[in-house]
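Archive entry. Fields below.
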Amino acid sequence: MIYPSAEERMELAITLAGNNIKNNGGPFGAAIFEQYSGRLVAPGINLVLQSNCSVVHAEIVAIMLAQQRVANFDLGAEGLPDYELVSTTEPCAMCLGAIPWSGIKSLVCGARDEDARSIGFDEGDKPDDWPQKLQSRTISVTRDILRDKAKAVLQQYIDAGGIIYNGRLQPTP
Amino acid sequence: MIYPSAEERMELAITLAGNNIKNNGGPFGAAIFEQYSGRLVAPGINLVLQSNCSVVHAEIVAIMLAQQRVANFDLGAEGLPDYELVSTTEPCAMCLGAIPWSGIKSLVCGARDEDARSIGFDEGDKPDDWPQKLQSRTISVTRDILRDKAKAVLQQYIDAGGIIYNGRLQPTP
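PREDICTED_STRUCTURE:
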């Protein structure tokens, strides 16, 4: 499948997030594409609740699947096309740390970090200038693609009574 | 198996790292224990090279296995004992970000971040005060347990001609 534009790629990630809510998962979707051809390489959904595993955020799942598909732990390896990670919400501290190791060349985000925080999700301790830090590693960052639609999926999760698990459950106050 | 002291727990993680080098893996080991009883819950080794997956650092593997074992994505959930993650080298930015989501209550490290950097491994963009940041999330941090021995495993990897892959291969200059 070919997804030519950033918006079409984000639409897919948002659809994955919405479907995941229906399957009792977290409201986050992602996908990895060949950056220039737009070919879909791997989808990702947040599988924390379904898998009993705090690690499997949507971005992590997409990275793991893409690396299996190309049989390389480095999506930036010589001979491979450039890859782009599209995520419905800006990455948490863990996913942000995973991005440089993955070899992707481009990150495209929908909802902002603060959109996730505003409904109670913890995004972790990220450097304020994280987009610049990725860019200094020659990973491009594009923000706010279909932000309102990506935010709406977060709200949909809350409205459906989804729990805020933050990777882990919140201690009761 | 019971590992009463921090040193005994670190010895196990160092042994895992050493064995992993012999199996063509990266020089990093980890393990999760019940913090107070010292019972081993899950080992972890860096499986990046063997699995074609940049995500599976030793700490991540230990967290994933421990959560499967207790069938909970939150090792800090009510009714569970406190869990401790022991790692031969201080966590990279990704693993650091994964720790608060995992629910562990204690982190014990061997080699320092700069010991890994000094042989060429990239640890990512971490806040300088990362131990304080974990502690402010009520996760205790203990450093320098068998640091020299943990450093020696890193050196052993280099001496054996191990590649510095940094999650991803370094671009050739």
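CURATOR_NOTE: The beta strands of chain A are 29-34, 40-45, 83-89, 106-111, 140-142.
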